[in-house]
């Protein structure tokens, strides 16, 4: 046995060879010099090399979702949202039936209109809460394992060749970049900044209306169509006043819903069911007119015209008018063909005497009560002028003799406009302060807060220390409800003073009723209205719940319509005289 070589550095005879580098080192770590390893390089290790392989198994933790399992999302949440809306609608029907003394048929009509409303939505709610969809998803893997997949129909070779040729043609067009660029430039049309602004405004307006179709405001539209079906003389401000007085469930309605329904509402759904303020008149009219139009267009369910006689009397009384003013307004409204329908498509088209005549006019789809009170303003302008100039009748047979004098009449209108009804003293629009209340007013305010803030009686706590030691006294008098019902049925409760003097006759040369009537352009933003005319328009706008510009625009359109009728009558009379 050949002796082992000693290390020239330390003299050690213990050697070892590294398996990875092939170097020979002694026990002290000195590398043996002048040593050559005559082995070929291989990719794999030799049979004597030790390779350790270890597969690390990653521990998968079960993901726990932090979402509340009681909340409903998706189609199931949408179905639950409409369930809440339907329950709120039933509460609103019960509140209106109690407040206005409506017949029991009102609930039946509301139920039918609600069914039509759901079917006419752009995105109707699902018919069921989609439990069957979950069962289908669970049953699909079982069908796949059993091989119960549906067999696809055999392909037609001719149709397959046609599809391949079409795909090749499309590919050739895409491969030619110049041709694609020319076609893209040809399809694009330059838009000015005004066109872009108008397009964005129309898109936002349509998007806003699309969002309102399934909001709580749509319930008021359903109630309005039901009232029109029963020929009830109601208007949009009647519902708005009840909402602001918390007589009609609309603001914070979640306190009326049971816990079994509110526990499944998400944050967004709860916000959608809880509007922060009462709806506007124009928004309600847009929803109501759309519903009536689609009901007639798709199901041929006709909504009758407005019960115009009592509503016109309410408009006359809102401007402190008397029966003479009512009779004059009725004649002018018949001459102007005032629209009393929810939408112009429900009314018969206008009679065309010539080919140039239109089948409908502007503001034919306006708010009906605004059209009526605008006609009253037109008659008042014919009698008084409302431009700061005195006008007096000359003959005793003039109907203007039965109307009051202008200064006293305008003073009554201004006083009525500044007076807040007792039922609306504590609404959001009221400016009254708690510091200015006396003891009786403070008790009424606490009763209003109890009605507006506390939940339903069956949802209140049985033992409440505050309610036990500091109970709120109930008001057993029904004067407020009777006064509210009288206002809704008969109009404003303030009677016309009997001592109001009438217009006096004047024989001297002065302006007569109907002379020098000024028509004010609503689009003139720099023009100022006379104080007398502005006072009357402001009172009419407050009564109807719209802007003053909207009322003045309707008045201007009706005045120009009278001018065109007057010119046409004079032309026909001139032709008859010539013949």
UniProtKB/TrEMBL annotation:
Alphabetic keyword roster: DNA-binding, Metal-binding, Nucleus, Transcription, Transcription regulation, Zinc, Zinc-finger
Protein name: RRN7-type domain-containing protein
Cellular localisation: Nucleus, Nucleolus
Coiled coil regions in record: none
One GO term describing the cellular component: RNA polymerase I core factor complex
GO molecular function: RNA polymerase I core promoter sequence-specific DNA binding; zinc ion binding
Presence of the UniProt keyword Nucleotidyltransferase in the record: no
Stretch list, region Disordered: 139-177
């Amino acid at each position: 046995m050949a002796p082992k070589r000693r290390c020239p550095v330390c003299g050690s005879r213990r050697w070892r060879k590294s398996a990875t580098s092939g170097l020979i080192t002694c026990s002290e770590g000195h590398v043996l010099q002048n040593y050559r390893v005559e082995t070929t390089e291989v990719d794999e290790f030799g049979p004597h090399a030790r390779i350790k392989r270890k597969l690390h198994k990653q521990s998968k933790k079960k993901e726990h979702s932090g979402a509340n399992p009681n909340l409903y999302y998706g189609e199931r949440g949408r179905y639950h949202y409409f369930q809440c809306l339907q329950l709120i609608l039933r509460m609103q029907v019960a509140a209106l039936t109690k407040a206005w003394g409506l017949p029991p048929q009102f609930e039946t009509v509301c139920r039918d209109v609600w069914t039509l409303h759901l079917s006419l939505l752009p995105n109707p709610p699902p018919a069921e809460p989609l439990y069957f969809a979950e069962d289908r998803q669970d049953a699909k893997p079982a069908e796949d394992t059993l091989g119960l997949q549906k067999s696809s129909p055999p392909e037609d070779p001719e149709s397959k060749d046609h599809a391949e040729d079409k795909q090749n043609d499309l590919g050739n067009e895409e491969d030619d970049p110049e041709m694609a660029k020319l076609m893209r430039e040809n399809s694009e049309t330059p838009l000015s900044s005004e066109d872009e602004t108008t397009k964005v405004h129309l898109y936002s307006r349509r998007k806003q209306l699309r969002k309102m179709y399934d909001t709580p405001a749509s319930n008021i539209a359903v109630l309005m169509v039901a009232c029109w079906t029963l020929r009830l003389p109601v208007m949009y401000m009647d519902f708005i006043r009840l909402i602001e007085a918390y007589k009609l469930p609309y603001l914070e309605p979640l306190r009326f819903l049971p816990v079994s329904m509110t526990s499944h509402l998400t944050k967004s759904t709860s916000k959608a069911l809880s509007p922060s303020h009462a709806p506007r008149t124009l928004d309600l009219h847009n929803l109501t007119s759309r519903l009536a139009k689609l009901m007639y267009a798709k199901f041929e369910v006709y909504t009758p015209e407005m019960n115009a006689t009592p509503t016109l009397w309410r408009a006359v009384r809102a401007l402190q008018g008397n029966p003479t003013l009512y009779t004059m307004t009725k004649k002018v409204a018949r001459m102007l063909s005032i629209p009393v329908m929810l939408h112009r498509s429900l009314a018969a088209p206008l009679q065309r005497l010539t080919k140039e005549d239109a089948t409908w006019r502007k503001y034919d789809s306006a708010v009906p009560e605004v059209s009526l009170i605008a006609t009253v303003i037109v008659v008042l302008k014919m009698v008084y002028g409302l431009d700061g100039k005195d006008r007096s009748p000359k003959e005793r047979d003039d109907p203007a003799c039965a109307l009051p004098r202008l200064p006293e009449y305008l003073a009554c209108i201004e006083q009525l406009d500044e007076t807040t009804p007792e039922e609306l003293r504590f609404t959001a629009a009221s400016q009254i302060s708690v510091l200015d209340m006396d003891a009786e007013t403070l008790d009424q305010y606490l009763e209003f807060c109890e009605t507006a803030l506390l939940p339903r009686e069956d949802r209140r706590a049985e033992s409440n220390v505050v309610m036990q030691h500091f109970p709120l006294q109930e008001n057993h008098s029904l004067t407020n409800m009777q006064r509210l019902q009288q206002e809704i049925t008969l109009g404003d409760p303030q009677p016309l003073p009997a001592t109001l003097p009438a217009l006096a006759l004047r024989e001297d040369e002065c302006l007569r009723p109907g002379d020098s009537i000024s028509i004010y352009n609503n689009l003139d933003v720099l023009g100022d209205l006379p104080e007398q005319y502005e006072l009357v328009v402001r009172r009419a706008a407050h009564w109807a719940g719209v802007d003053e510009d909207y009322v003045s625009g309707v008045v201007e359109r009706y005045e120009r319509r009278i001018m065109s009728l007057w010119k046409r009558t004079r032309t026909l009379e001139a032709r008859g005289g010539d013949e």
